[in-house]
Amino acid sequence: MNPSIAFIGLGNMGYPIAKNLIEQGFTVSLYNRTPEKLRDLLTLGGHAAETPAAAVASAAVVMTMLSDDAAVTTIADQVLSALQPGTVFLSLSTIKAETAQALADQCRTRGVHYVAAPVMGRPPAAAARQLSILLSGDAGAQARVAPIVAAIGARCFDFGPEPGTAHTVKLMLNFMIFTIVEMLSEVMLMAEKAGIDKAALLDTMLNTVYGAPVFKNYGTLIVQESEVPNGFATALANKDLRLAQETAAALGAKLPLAELVRAHFEEMIAAGKGDKDVSGLITHLRK
């Protein structure tokens, strides 16, 4: 029997994930700060809750997909007292390991299990159940959420029992994505100035030195330079880069490339483009 779920956070990523769970027969109680986002999910069979605490009251698994550390911590403060012992707090958000550890400690005092499950993939991948899911936390709790993980993703990667580890891996992978966006934007502008067809260059790249999906996906967006609905907002990307830098510094490591990419992201944000997809970097660099 599938575990009952409380899902909190129906943004660009949370919405398609929750939709998939409902469509696959899970009992899902939903909470979002913007109630209008619930409408279609209720039609599919989801259940609305007026408060986060009401959403989690009878859930075996609480899933959060929220924007940052502060949002996750705020929700945790509101729901922990309402959770039953044995509940799994499944955190899909991109946050720091220190935040995850603090949440795991709070959960442990109430007999609740914290499992980190940040995801790799854009909204279309979430809708198609093609996410890669990074896991860390208690092995028994991971086993309990295995049906949920299988329902929303194509593959999972287990990084062991420490609650913060998967979140650190997520920050490292996002850092790599953003440096790829920077590199592709610079190369495509160089091609443009040299009179080289950018689509042809991308095709060459994808069939020679770079064949990974991230190059194809972001390369296509950068070449097209069109508006991207439900994209990876530059403001959120900048937050992830900041967290990656802070995590690296705490470990005694450095991410020099992050300084360059963050400077460009912050310029975009200052120009009012913080809500636009990171692939808009090429347009910013051209200007």
UniProtKB/TrEMBL annotation:
3-hydroxyisobutyrate dehydrogenase-like NAD-binding domain residues: 164-284
Keyword Lyase: no
Pfam families in UniProt: NAD_binding_11, NAD_binding_2
Transmembrane segments: none
Keywords for the protein's UniProt record, in alphabetical order: NAD, Oxidoreductase
Active site: K170
Domain 6-phosphogluconate dehydrogenase NADP-binding: 4-157
Record InterPro entries: 6-PGluconate_DH-like_C_sf, 6PGD_dom2, 6PGDH_NADP-bd, HIBADH-like_NADP-bd, HIBADH-related, HIBADH-related_NP60_sf, NAD(P)-bd_dom_sf
Signal peptide: none
Molecular function as annotated in GO: NAD binding; NADP binding; oxidoreductase activity
The name this protein goes by in its record: NAD(P)-dependent oxidoreductase
Species in which this protein is naturally found: Dawidia soli
Upper taxonomic lineage: Bacteria, Pseudomonadati, Bacteroidota, Cytophagia, Cytophagales
